[in-house]
């Protein structure tokens, strides 16, 4: 008997404070609703498993604080997210207007997936997230670049420099547009 494929999806619930993000999440996961309002501090998450066709999917649902003072925490909570659910209160138009900001902030923070997809679509270019401040992944990135350079050393012409002209025109010498 074949075991179903398993997948883990990270879902972020975003929106202004008080729009019902926690209530929505609790209703979905626990089938419960409470009239008592308790603001989320930072973020919290719950999991729920569901079957989608032949896959067993575990949703890791992150409930984020909507208060302005917690927006800077978004970077850590958004990292690795597969999608977001944008929530607003139908009775408060301002909460709808701010959805564009929440969406934009989310997309900005999950650019790793966009960058990885871009690299993959261009012949699986190696992708590294690095931090010069923390020293994270710096050695690995440069080691990978050096290894790739050594591998291409045996070719007549490096593929990354094929379109760069050998001579510089007079316009370029005088500060004109660069041809590379």
Short description:
This protein is of the alpha/beta class and about 180 residues long.
Topology:
Blueprint: E1 5-14, H1 21-30, E2 43-52, E3 55-64, H2 74-78, E4 83-86, H3 93-97, H4 99-109, H5 111-121, H6 138-152, H7 170-173
Parallel strand pairs: 1-3, 1-4
Antiparallel strand pairs: 2-3
What are the key terms here?
disordered C terminus; 180 residues; 4 strands; alpha/beta; 7 helices; Rossmann fold; 2 domains
Beta fraction of the residues?
15-25%
**Biggest β-sheet strands, sense, barrel:** 4 strands, mixed
Strands across the major sheet, in which order? 2-3-1-4
Q: Provide the low-confidence segments as ranges.
A: 161-180
On the 0 to 100 scale, the average pLDDT is 74
- CATH architecture assignment of the largest domain: 3-Layer(aba) Sandwich
- Classify the fold: give the CATH topology of the largest domain: Rossmann fold
Helix proportion of residues, in percent?
A: 25-40%
CATH-wise, what's the superfamily of the largest domain?
P-loop containing nucleotide triphosphate hydrolases
User: How many beta-strand elements?
Assistant: 4
Classification by helices and strands? alpha/beta
N-to-C SSE string, H for helix and E for strand: EHEEHEHHHHH
Classified by CATH, the class of the largest domain is Alpha Beta
Number of helices: 7
Which term fits the overall shape?
extended
User: Could you tell me how far the N terminus lies from the C terminus, measured between alpha carbons in angstroms?
Assistant: 57 Å
Radius of gyration: 24 Å
Number of structurally distinct domains: 2
């Amino acid at each position: 008997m074949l075991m179903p494929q398993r997948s883990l999806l990270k879902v972020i619930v975003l929106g202004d404070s008080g729009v019902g993000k926690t209530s929505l999440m609790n209703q979905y996961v626990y089938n419960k609703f409470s009239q008592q309002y308790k603001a989320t501090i930072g973020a919290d998450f719950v999991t729920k498993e569901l079957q989608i066709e032949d896959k067993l999917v575990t949703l890791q649902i992150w409930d984020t604080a909507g208060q302005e003072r917690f927006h800077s925490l978004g970077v850590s909570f958004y990292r690795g997210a597969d999608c977001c659910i944008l929530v607003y209160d139908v009775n408060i138009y301002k909460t709808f207007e701010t959805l564009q900001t929440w969406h934009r902030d989310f997309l900005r923070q999950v650019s790793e997936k966009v960058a990885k997809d871009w690299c993959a679509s261009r012949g699986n270019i190696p992708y590294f997230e690095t931090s010069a401040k923390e020293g994270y992944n710096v050695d690995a990135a440069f080691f990978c670049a050096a290894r790739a350079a050594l591998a291409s050393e045996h070719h007549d012409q490096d593929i990354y420099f094929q379109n760069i002209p050998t001579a510089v025109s007079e316009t370029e010498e005088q500060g004109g547009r660069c041809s590379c």
